[in-house]
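User: Good morning. I'm curious how NDP would be positioned relative to this chain. Could you predict the structure with it bound?
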Amino acid sequence: MIKVGIVGGTGYTGVELLRLLSRHPDVELRAVTSRKEAGMKVAEMFPSLRGRVDIAFSTPEDAKLTECDVVFFATPHGVAMAQARELLEAGVKVIDLAADFRLKDPAEFAKWYAMEHSCTDLLAEAVYGLPEVNRAAIQSARLIGMAGCYPTSVQLGLLPLLENGKKLIETTGLIADCKSGVSGAGRKAEVGTLFAESADNFKAYGVKGHRHSPEIMQGLSEIHGAPVQLTFVPHLTPMIRGIHSTIYARLTEEGKNTDIQKLFEERFANEVFVDVMPAGSCPETRSVRGSNTARIAVHRPGNGDLLVILVVEDNLVKGASGQSVQVMNLMFGLNEQHGLDVVPLLP
Ligand SMILES: NC(=O)C1=CN([C@@H]2O[C@H](COP(=O)(O)OP(=O)(O)OC[C@H]3O[C@@H](n4cnc5c(N)ncnc54)[C@H](OP(=O)(O)O)[C@@H]3O)[C@@H](O)[C@H]2O)C=CC1
Ligand SMILES: CC(=O)N[C@@H](CCC(=O)OP(=O)(O)O)C(=O)O
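Assistant: Good morning! Here's the predicted structure, ligand included:
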């Protein structure tokens, strides 16, 4: 059994990790931290986990994390980078759901996250946690910076078109128009996520620049092997879970002469967590709710040169905790689907 610790077990991604790991056949939950709720039983705070999780929250200091095989950080940005070195030196693998180990350039990290990076040597070692792109590197990694929620959907949607220097679409002027449910903002109290502010309302935010823009462009440029330029506009929608990304790309002459539906179907044929829907489909966020699946549909309106790619995922599962369990499975040589064989919840 793999001994697992979670730092930040009371947030939305933390409790989602608990839900998934509590039914994982190869995992033993050793420690779950909360500074505010230390001492309280996990299942007392989250009755959904009664009979599933039998430990109490402890402070990060009391959690004996160095005795774990792997520690997940489901914490705000900046927490994992302060503790990763000690854990790695003790032989513990680290999976960070925040952004501490995503951006390769420490200056970019400082610019977007308003803090200096405290361990740039580890930043160089860290592997980006997006299995459909990086599976082999993840398998041998000891430190993972999980892909962000929006970046997961946008990179999966463009992967077949860009990888290995393909010239099927223009690589400047790409547009990702993305919508997220409110759980994407986390469980902390904030005016913008109050019911009266976010229900029955719809708005864009971060239009001048969002911290996921550099992450998406870094990822796409690595996938393509050359710079890729994309405009990313996130929106807050009055739903709890889910991301819907609509991506617009101009096809090149080569792209116009390519069967794009077939390209996507073949690229993801062996990916258990990516479903390419039949031509003409419009995937719904509720079709992935609670599951680690991303569903993708490609459209070419009027058979013109504009390609529209639709991607849906659950921000808390494929966009965060589920994908991090997928990554853990790869790091420990387990079946990639263990703990993740969940049918989406309807309605
Ligand atoms: N919500 C989402 O859809 C997604 C979130 N993420 C990322 O995952 C991370 C967690 O997000 P989310 O679950 O939404 O956040 P929440 O705000 O819901 O939860 C944060 C958790 O971290 C703990 N925490 C806060 N500060 C510290 C600290 N200094 N040291 C140790 N623990 C701390 C909190 O507990 P306590 O204060 O009691 O210690 C709490 O359990 C974030 O970095 C976020 O960007 C990634 C993808 C999607
Ligand atoms: C709706 C909402 O507020 N979403 C968050 C993104 C979700 C998140 O926590 O971002 P990471 O994937 O980088 O960890 C935001 O825009 O900041």
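The two ends are 35 Å apart (CA to CA). The chain has two domains: 2-147+320-331, 150-313.
Let me know if you'd like a different ligand tried.
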